[in-house]
């Protein structure tokens, strides 16, 4: 048997309510034969297709043997982000409707950390942006030379890139961030990845041309309010609670910056993983909509998860969509 070691989230991760650092995980009760791997990065249609004809598997039929002692931990993100809220809703659905299993959402630094902890066996489910997941599977970017054995349950909602600037800094585009104090999100998070790529697409070196700070969303919001940051990046679903809190209390101090104009150099380097969309005016009650860059979100599992469990988790994701929507409206997207 191999001991499942606990990996703590970074010290700057904010926790709330019942989301506390979990104690050491129990050792695995045994190892199962490796089964056929799930297809990499399923499209929405295929993911929904997996749920068709689920009448043979009911909530009342317990699994013959619970994987990982029946404990399912979900790697999410900052407590003021969508991953954490949606993950909490998904964990509740799993605990209530998958006999023999208990699930809980864990706050983390998001995509990159989530994949690492998933592969290390510290988590059973991980939320990730599609660009980070693609890098992990291909062994490039932050995972250069180290392809990660992860697979996707489903492609879910899209993340919108929020670039927020101080109004008095008179920043009109990403290139104007040269020399500015900029938060690019938690280290190795999906926000950190896309922020670096957008800065590069605008002709800036992310580590030399801006005064870069890698901060969690709660820390970033606090520093924007304190005036110790000039700009921030965040990639999240709509609405992101932390962003709504920042913009709602100081619309005269902060503004969303359009970045959709960078899609061509971004796509030329990184392919079609990115698209453009308008961040609706009504989302944060701004003066007008904001053209921005979007990227899909994936729900990932380890490559050695039993096929039946992966099927059941996918079935729950779509069968109880209304329950997930109660946690956050992105579940209806």
UniProtKB/TrEMBL annotation:
Pfam families: NMT1_3
Annotated PANTHER family: SLL1037 PROTEIN
UniProt lineage: Bacteria, Bacillati, Actinomycetota, Actinomycetes, Micromonosporales
Compositionally biased intervals (Low complexity): 15-31
Chain spans, region Disordered: 1-31
Biased composition regions of type Basic and acidic residues, renumbered to the chain: 1-14
Listed name of the protein: TRAP transporter solute receptor, TAXI family
């Amino acid at each position: 048997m191999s001991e499942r070691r606990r990996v703590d989230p970074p010290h700057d991760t904010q926790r709330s309510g019942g989301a506390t650092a979990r104690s050491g995980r129990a050792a695995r009760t045994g190892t199962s034969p490796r089964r056929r791997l799930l297809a990499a990065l399923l499209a929405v249609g295929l993911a929904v297709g997996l749920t068709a004809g689920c009448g043979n598997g009911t909530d009342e039929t317990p699994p013959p043997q619970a994987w990982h002692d029946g404990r399912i931990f979900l790697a999410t993100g900052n407590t003021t982000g969508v991953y954490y809220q949606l993950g909490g809703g998904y964990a509740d659905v799993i605990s209530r409707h998958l006999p023999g299993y208990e699930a809980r959402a864990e706050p983390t630094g998001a995509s990159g950390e989530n994949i690492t902890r998933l592969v290390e066996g510290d988590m059973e489910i991980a939320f990730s942006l599609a660009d980070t997941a693609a890098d992990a599977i291909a062994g490039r970017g932050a995972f250069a030379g180290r392809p990660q054995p992860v697979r996707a349950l489903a492609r879910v909602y899209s993340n919108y890139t929020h670039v927020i600037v101080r109004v008095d800094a008179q920043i009109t585009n990403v290139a104007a961030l040269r020399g500015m104090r900029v938060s690019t999100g938690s280290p190795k998070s999906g926000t950190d990845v896309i922020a670096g790529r957008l800065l590069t697409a605008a002709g800036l070196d992310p580590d030399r041309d801006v005064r870069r700070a890698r901060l969690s969303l709660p820390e970033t919001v606090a520093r924007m309010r304190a005036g110790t940051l000039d700009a921030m990046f965040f990639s999240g679903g709509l609405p992101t609670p932390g962003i709504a809190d920042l913009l709602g209390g100081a619309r005269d101090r902060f503004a969303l910056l359009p970045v959709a104009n960078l899609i061509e150099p971004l796509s030329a380097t990184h392919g079609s993983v990115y698209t453009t969309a308008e961040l609706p005016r009504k989302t944060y009650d701004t003066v007008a909509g904001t053209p921005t860059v979007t990227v899909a979100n994936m729900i990932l599992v380890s490559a050695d998860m039993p096929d039946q469990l992966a099927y059941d988790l996918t079935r729950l994701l779509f069968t109880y969509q209304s329950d997930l929507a109660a946690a956050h409206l992105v579940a209806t997207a």
